[in-house]
């Protein structure tokens, strides 16, 4: 249950992806279960199950902290390892991968949007929103109207 797909909320500016809190609770419960099993097993197995519990705790924290917003001014991603914001004007190109969209800036730094848990319609809508935002930012930089 802790490995479910993110929830997609469509706002006026664009989509926001985040995990439902129940997924973090499921990962936390799995960590607690692994710790209980570790408490009753011999020492050699305790280390293994303690590592499994640590992995589930990290997964629970990632599920609680993760948020990706596609907004008017750029894309912002927050997770267990920190936050990253990429303005649309900085996007040099977008890589379409089988299970992700990667927004790459001029310095080759990228923000990867995982799409493996999205339906085909959700992914297509996300791709169109990203394409529109990149196109609008390019038009603003050239001083042209965003829509022709």
SSE map:
Elements: E1 7-10, E2 15-18, H1 21-40, H2 43-65, E3 67-70, E4 74-79, E5 82-87, E6 91-97, E7 100-105, E8 110-114, H3 120-142
Helix pairs in contact: 1-2
What does this 3D model show about the protein?
This protein is α+β, with helices and mostly antiparallel strands. The chain has a domain at 71-142. It is built from three helices and eight strands; from the N terminus they run ββααββββββα. The strands form two sheets. A five-stranded antiparallel sheet has the order 1-2-3-4-5. A three-stranded antiparallel sheet has the order 6-7-8, with helices on one face. The N and C termini lie far apart (46 Å). The model has no long low-confidence stretch (mean pLDDT 88).
* Class from helix and strand fractions: alpha+beta
Note the main sheet. 5 strands, antiparallel
Mean of residue pLDDT values: 88
What is the percentage of strand-forming residues? 25-35%
Order of helices and strands: EEHHEEEEEEH
Poorly predicted regions: none
What percent of residues adopt helix (DSSP H or I)? 40-55%
Spatial ordering of strands, largest sheet: 1-2-3-4-5
How far apart are the first and last residues' alpha carbons, in Å?
46 Å
Number of helices: 3
Number of strands: 8
Rough shape?
A: elongated
Radius of gyration, Cα only, in angstroms? 19 Å
